[in-house]
Structures are given as structure tokens and as C-alpha cells.
Amino acid sequence: MRASLAEGYLLLKDEARASALIESTIDAALSGELNHTERYDAGAAALSALRHWPMETRLPQVRRLLQGLDRFTDAYTASAQRIYETFKVLMLERIVDTVADDVTFESDTVRGYLDEDEQSLRRRIIADWRSACGR
Q: Are the C-beta atoms of 71 and 30 separated by less than 8 Å?
């Protein structure tokens, strides 16, 4: 709820309250007071709210969650060989989504890189098919 309120205060241009609320949400996510699921939910809510913040104020908060990634554990994904840390993977996905938003993807530099990479991949696929078909 604090993350949603922080997002609302940000829309109302009350950055001080928004910052205090998002920081308390991240503090809760990184504290030992919550169980596995509550900790993940708090971190995910904070990242969801941060997607609407300017990048320069978003990044330090995201960095805090990334540095505290070991706090996002779970108790239900064990196998005989290893433990799959589902909440860590889910948090990493959300961190990437938070940092790489639509505005970032729409920049000319990023768009040019993606277009160039796509063309390179297409050329490689065509070359592989020609090689496989004997032409």
C-alpha cells in the first residue's frame, strides 16, 4: 500500500512524501520482519511504483533492492540437486523491467542498436540456412 501511495504522491508532485513512502517500502522489503512472500510482494510493489519515477531518482532505489537481492528467499522451490531461488529470479526480472522502460527503449540510440542487432541476426540466420541447404 505504501508503494501505491508513493506513486500517488509523486503524481501530485509531492516528491518528499513519495520518497519517504517508497524508502519505507524498500526498507520493509529488505528487513527481516516480513516472511518470504511479504518481502517479495513489498519489493515487487516498490519496483512497480518506481517505473513511473524519473530515471535519476529511480536508479538509487533500484540499486538498493539489487544490493539486497539475497534477502529475497523462498521456502518452496527445493529439488534434490539444488535450490531454485524463484523470488530472486522474479525480483531480477522486475528490476530489469523497472530500469528498461518504454521511454528508454524509445530513445534513438537504443532503437538504432536494436535495429542493427536485428539485421545482424537476420543475416546470420540466412547464412546458416544457406550453409545447411548447400547453397
A: yes
Helices (H), the chain: 2-11, 15-30, 36-50, 55-67, 86-99, 102-105, 108-133
* H or E segment to which residue 107 belongs: none
**Residuewise pLDDT in 10s, the chain (135 residues):** 888 888 888 888 888 999 999 999 999 999 878 888 889 899 999 999 998 888 888 889 999 998 998 888 776 655 555 556 788 888 888 888 888 766 665 666 766 776 787 788 888 888 888 887 776
CB-based contacts of 87: which residues, under 8 Å, 6+ apart? 36, 39, 40, 72, 73, 74
pTM above 0.85, yes or no: no
> How many CB atoms sit inside 10 A of residue 47's CB?
26
- Do 24 and 6 meet the contact criterion of CB atoms below 8 Å apart? no
Between helices 15-30 and 36-50, what is the axis angle to 10°? 150
Q: Which residue has the cell 522486475?
A: 94
